[in-house]
Predict the 3D structure of the following.
Amino acid sequence: MKNMKIAILGGGNIGTSLAAGLIRSGICDYDTVIVSDKREARLSYLRNKGFTVTSDNKEAIGFADHVILSVKPQQFEGLSDEIKDSAGRDKIIISTITGVVFDDLEKRLGKRELIRIMPNTALEICESMTCISFRNTGSETEELIVALFDRLGKTMVIPEDLMSAATVIGACGVAFALRFMRAMSQGGIEIGFNSDVSQIITAQTVKGAARLMLETRNHPESEIDKVTTPQGITISGLNEMEHQGLSSAVIRGLTVSFNKLENMLSGSGSHNNLR
């Protein structure tokens, strides 16, 4: 797998995080991953970070074995028009584009091995949760792609009809989790810590909680029970948070985002304003 050649079409936040993760993981080096973008300012930024860049998507495709589409949803049609004749059937196409389904990819790029992924920006530090769906792929391709993204965090193969849900909980979920962490850090300041110290304590505490779930596979409540003693301060704090609607607010936030995405996809077919 090392030094496989990968083109990332789109140098935005996900594309850049992916390029950084590929290099950090050892899958690629700076000479075997190329990032394309149409914005000169973005190309300059990426070049200064050490990445190989180009403004020519066809050049990027010619360089690579695997092509990752990482543009905004509203840019997909223009990109597909540009690359459809240069992306030969020997190229594996991987799409990160929210709302662009396999039928869209086949219509614009032809029937071929197609892969949809929904990662998050923790790709950069090889800690992404990446959900993957496959179409027209053989077992060798599927094993290769899962192994690749396992190096960039954790992966889960899901049916395509769960991709919207994966987008909300796995991709948008980074922002939701960080907003909770910001609130926790602000609370730490109010009770006596300075900003930097409160942020470190918050981050390590949340990291530890996440690892407990991942490594023990216990339900969150079973771990909560371990730190809530009768008439203790933890249960008092938890109950106050619930009185103020913590769980309800999180669930409602997720469902509002999900319903908005589903409504956009079932509406006019426009990919504007997704994510």
